[in-house]
From TrEMBL:
This is Preprotein translocase subunit YajC. Residues 91-108 have a biased composition (Basic and acidic residues). It comes from Pseudokineococcus lusitanus. It holds the Pfam family YajC. It is a single-pass membrane protein. It comes from the Bacteria. SMART domains: YajC (SM01323). Belongs to the YajC family.
Length: 108
């Protein structure tokens, strides 16, 4: 009976450990595949584009002409580039106009 209770307690712990190991492997693989031109997010939430990669460091351009260096392990994930706002369709309810709903102009 005691061994059954021990087994019931051990199984969830093993499942949690296996899941964590799988996630760590996926993150390590993503960090190993970082290359210039990829948009990334650091663990602290900084977004930027990778411009240079050395053994354990990554240079990220966070604004035009502004680059910072990060440890490779600080890269949390790669992100898909944001679509150009000019290409995106804007929903009508988010468009601000200078007219009231009845068509008369708003006064300044």
């Amino acid at each position: 009976m005691d061994s059954l209770i021990l087994l019931l307690l051990l199984v969830p712990l093993l499942l949690i450990a296996f899941r964590g190991s799988k996630q760590r492997k996926a993150v390590a693989q993503m960090q190993a595949e970082i290359a210039p031109g990829r948009e990334v997010m650091t663990a602290s939430g900084q977004f930027g584009v990778v411009t240079q990669v050395t053994d354990d460091r990554v240079e990220i351009e966070v604004a035009p002409g502004v680059s910072t260096w990060w440890l490779r392990q600080a890269i949390a994930r790669t992100v898909e580039p944001v679509a150009d706002p000019e290409d995106a369709e804007v929903a009508d309810e988010h468009v601000v106009t200078d007219e009231r709903p009845d068509g008369t102009p708003r006064s300044s």
